[in-house]
Amino acid sequence: MDKNFKKLLLLVSFGVVLFAALFNFTAVINYAGKVLSIFLPIIVGLIIAFVLNVPMKGFDNLLHKIFKKNDFKHKEKLINILSLVLTLLAIIVVIVLAVTLAVPEIVSSVKRIYVQIQAKLPEFIAWLNSYNIDTTRLTELAKNININSFLSTITTGAGSLLSSVWGFATTTVSGVSTTIFAIVISIYVLLDKKTLSRHMKKLMYSFLKTETTEKLCEVGALSVETYSKFLSGQTIEAVILGVLIFIFFSIFRLPYAALIAFLTSFFAFVPYVGAFASCAIGAFLILLDSPEKVITCVIVYLVVQFVENQFIYPHVVGSSVGLSPLWTLMAAIIGGNLFGIVGIIFFIPLAAVLYTLLQGHINKKLRINRIKID
User: Fold this and answer.
1) Taking the mean position of all CA atoms in its chain, how far away is CA 52?
2) pTM of the predicted structure, to 2 decimals
């Protein structure tokens, strides 16, 4: 059969299938939802394993250095198990510390901010009225604010917070059983990741062209490396920057030290842009409480940010993503609008992977065509 005829036949078949799918779009979506629900535990488990693999690799390298001189049977398997256990313990410790230490300070800061807003709001409304600005909606909004309902879920302690997180997780992945299966799958994947990787390569080399398989492996390795650098780099930066902000804000007796440190750590997952956002929010909060300390707040924040970026971050982390501020902001906006904070965390390194692949393809085309652009 002629190759052109085969291509034409495939094109016509694809067009017929696409037309049928669009004509029965609702049924296709429902069927796709059912298929997704079947594979959802596997998908979520793979995502969990992908994220946990970053700290696990760090513990793995550390344990290899410790057991370097010892050469005994099942060494690799033991190190793999210990790395996973240490990773899970580290996550539990971080959650416990956040609940027992950071949350009470944040709650206290939020209460103070609420009191300040309640005190300053009448003056602000009066100032707007002096310029004939309609403040009806603002007044209604102020009356409907109920800080107690917001804080009641936080002040109940660690048990309430953890149950809320568990409830969020179970509703997000459609039930407790899906969550449990996803966690179990992620643990099995992490414990046997080298064997699974070897089997996947064998499968691809068996059914795909060698060039296609090598390209897929290259893209996969680039994705893993980029995500690992981003997650580990931004996590380390977030912790260091948050601690430094808390220390120096406490030294200069600036209000809301714990809350601003928490916001700084949170926004640090967005390179370049996050620092300016957390600085602006921190300055606004201090403006409500102590207007005379706003300049001190901005100066301290910028100095800490400069010192961390110039002297600490390059040595501890290095270049984690390699995206310009514009592309970082665009990736953060798209990811945030689609999937919230999870979208921000995953879309920035995704944009870095796509940028690297596109840049390599463009440079290859330019070399082939002997085009040089300065």
Assistant:
1) 12
2) 0.65
